[in-house]
Write a structure and sequence with these properties.
heterodimer, A: mainly beta, six-stranded mixed beta sheet, five-stranded antiparallel beta sheet, 58% strand, B: mainly beta, seven-stranded mixed beta sheet, 11 strands
Chain lengths: 116, 110
């Protein structure tokens, strides 16, 4: 069974710092990897999706990389802002194994606080 | 649009009472739909998934059930709630372009 681990569990930084959040997974047979953001008491907002054949994706100040062979992904946040404070979740979708459905496996998340 | 509607947003129910949480989705037909639960101090757990009307698969044995009476409607139910059913319930749809989640329902069983 796929296991997803996120490090660190919590991170508190001053505004303006560049950050790296880490995600590792045990089974490299994945369909894609997705990073989400969750604000307190809210649902999940998709940030970036990396297909298994891709190495990285970028959106604004966010960059996510994927090394499928080593089972690792990183989310890079440039020039952090207080509005970036949230929990960041990494999820991998298992590869299609003859069905139309792939399951998402989540890490526990990194709780990020950016203070002014 | 891939919008997902969930209601209610918050619910407080006594132990032993029934439950019905509804999720409706917009966008393309025949979506893959999912119910996840996020319990305090724990990660997201997949409860049920559905690839079509009337097709439900359960991931873990539990006190809950799910139904899909219409293509874009997914319902989570219980006949008698337990304290351990408390949590944050999220509905999601999955496509080749990734997953989209609803805003969730916070359920507190008292």
């Amino acid at each position: 069974k796929q296991e997803v681990t996120q490090i660190p569990a919590a991170l508190s930084v001053p505004e303006g710092e560049n950050l790296v959040l880490n995600c590792s997974f045990t089974d490299s047979a994945i369909y894609n990897l997705q990073w989400f953001r969750q604000d307190p008491g809210k649902g999940l907002t998709s940030l970036l999706l990396i297909q298994s054949s891709q190495r990285e994706q970028t959106s604004g100040r966010l960059n996510a990389s994927l090394d499928k062979s080593s089972g690792r992904s990183t989310l890079y946040i440039a020039a952090s802002q207080p509005g970036d404070s949230a929990t960041y979740l990494c999820a991998v979708e298992e590869a299609d194994r003859g069905s139309t459905l792939g399951r998402l496996y989540f890490g526990r998340g990194t709780q990020l606080t950016v203070w002014p | 649009s891939q919008t997902i509607h969930q209601w209610p947003a918050t619910l407080v129910q006594p132990v032993g009472s029934p439950l019905s949480l509804e999720c409706t989705v917009e966008g393309t037909s025949n979506p893959n739909l999912y119910w996840y639960r996020q319990a305090a101090g724990r990660g997201l757990q997949l409860l049920f998934y559905s690839v079509g009307i009337g097709q439900i698969s359960s991931e873990v044995p539990q006190n809950l059930s799910a139904s899909r009476p219409q293509d874009r409607q997914f319902i989570l139910s219980s006949k008698k709630l337990l304290l351990s059913d408390s949590g944050f319930y999220l509905c999601a749809r999955g496509t080749v372009h990734g997953y989209t989640f609803g805003s969730g329902t916070r359920l507190t069983v008292v």
